[in-house]
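Sat 14:20. Reprocessing the chain from the morning session after the first attempt stalled halfway. Input below, unchanged.
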Amino acid sequence: MKLTHSKEWYEQRIALEGDTDIGAGTIAAFREPAVAQTQVAPIDTRIAFGTFVELWRRNRGWDAVKLAEAAGVNPEEILEIEHSPQSEPEPNAVFRLAAVFNMPSKILMELAGLIESRTPSLRQAAVRFAARSESVAELNPHEREAFEAFVSAIAETAGK
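Finished this time. Tokens:
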């Protein structure tokens, strides 16, 4: 059998694997570009993923900083996952979140669009979840205070 990659390539992949599930000798999230060129998951599953992360966090009474600390990722990564479905999250961040959520990383990787979706029912459920999860409730006092402070900062910046 002829190896198609350099020794360094294999060593990098081994270091990335850690204790994650692997299949056919590679982590699903780190496929070669030729395999990963196809659209892995539509943006709607990333919307559902971000909504899930936000609602999980809020259900625990955590802010983005506390979740970031628990997962060992940057708060910016949490905010990007929650609010920017066009952006592809880092695989390591998704693995770490899966551990915090006590959920299978494969499912979250699929929702995040990092591995090929093989579960049409999951995609359909994700779309329904994202569509029904948009809040129609009024802002709570904490959210209103944060919103008003941010609007003030915008007005102050615009006035300069």
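Residues 28 and 65 are 29 Å apart (CA to CA).
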